[in-house]
C-alpha cells in the first residue's frame, strides 16, 4: 500500500455512532462544487503552456482596491473577453468593427482604452507629458501592467489609492454612452467623475470598517466563563496538537488542556477535535462553562450547517451528542490574536511531543518514589510512636532504677530507630513530672500528628 494512503487512512476519524462509511468529494467540506470539478478537469488536461501567459495579470485584477464589478471588468480586459467590436466580430456577431468614438480605427480592447484619441486625451491630462515613453503603449498587457503598478499616486484629497483603475472604468462608461446613446463627455468630466466616484467608494469602505470595529466588543460580555479552543496541524509532521483554555473575562485561568495525537486529516479536523476534546473535559469535570470560542470561521459554519460538511460527519455526530449535554451551548468566533492561549497550548504540544513524553515518564517515576517514601515514613513513625509511648509509661509510673529495666525491654530495632531519629527523646527524658500524652498515630500526614504532641 502507498505510504501516503496509510497516512490518510490512519488520520481518518472513526465514527462513535457506528455510522456506515460513505464517499465524500475531496474538497475541504467534502461537498462537490463546480469550482472544484473545474479544477479537476483542468488538472486532467495537464496541458503544458509554453511561453509567457497573462495568468498573473488576470490574478492581479482581483487584488485591486476597487468594487467587485471593476475587478471583474479588469479580468475581462486581460482575458480578452470584454465585448468591444473586434471581439464581438471574432465571435461571429455581425457588426461594424470601427470605433464609434473616433471612427478612425478598429475597436480593439487596447484601442478603446489606450489608443483611441478620445482616451489618450484623458491620459495626457492626467500625466501632463509624464511617462510618455512607458504609457500608453501598443500592447494591452504592458498598459495593464502599468495600471496595476500604481503608476500614479492619489490625485484627489482623501483618496488613498491610485485613480488609474477608476479612470479606465469611466472611459468604458463613456464608450458605452457613445455606442448606445450617442452621448460623449469631455475628458475633464471623465476624470472628475472617476475621482469623485473613487472618493465616495473609499469613504464608504472606511465607514463600514469603523462601524464593525465599534460594534464588536458590545457583543462579548466580558464577565462570563469561556473556553477557547485551537488545533495545530502541519502537513509535514506526524502529530497534530490540541489545546483549550477555560477562564473568565479578566483572563484568569480556571482550567486548561493540551495534548498531541496522531495527525488528523486536515487543519480543520484538528480544530474540530480540539473543540470536542474541550467539551468532553468541561462536561466530565462539571465545569460551569457553556461559551466556547474559536478563531476558525469554518468551524462555526460547519456547526451551523452540518449537512454542507459531509467530510466531517463522524465528528459532527459526536458534536451533536456533546452539545446536547450543555443547557445553553454557544460557539463564537474570536480573532486569532485573542486566541493566543489555546493556540500556544496546541502548538507547543505538537512541537514538544518528545519533551511531553519524557515529562510524563518522569512524573510517573516521581509518583512511585513518593509513594515508596510515604510508606517508609509511616513505618518509621509507627516504631517511634510505640517507643515513645512505652518511654512515657516508664517515666510516669516507674522509679529511676526501673528505667534501665524498661529500656532493656525495648527491642533492639526500636533502639536503633530512636538513635536514627537523633535520640532527642533520651536526652529530654529525665523530666519526671511531665506526662507525655501522645495521640495514636493513624497514618496520613506525619507532620500533623507530630504537631498535636506540642
Ligand atoms: Zn477610437
UniProtKB/TrEMBL annotation:
Keyword vocabulary terms for this entry: Coiled coil
Keyword Ribosomal protein part of the UniProt annotation: no
Domain named Reverse transcriptase zinc-binding: residues: 32-123
Domain of life of the organism encoding this protein: Eukaryota
Family matches, as InterPro entries: RNase_H-like_dom_plant, RNaseH-like_sf, RNaseH_domain, RNaseH_sf, RVT-Znf
Keyword match Ribonucleoprotein: no
Coiled-coil segments: 349-394
Descriptive protein name: Uncharacterized protein LOC104734079
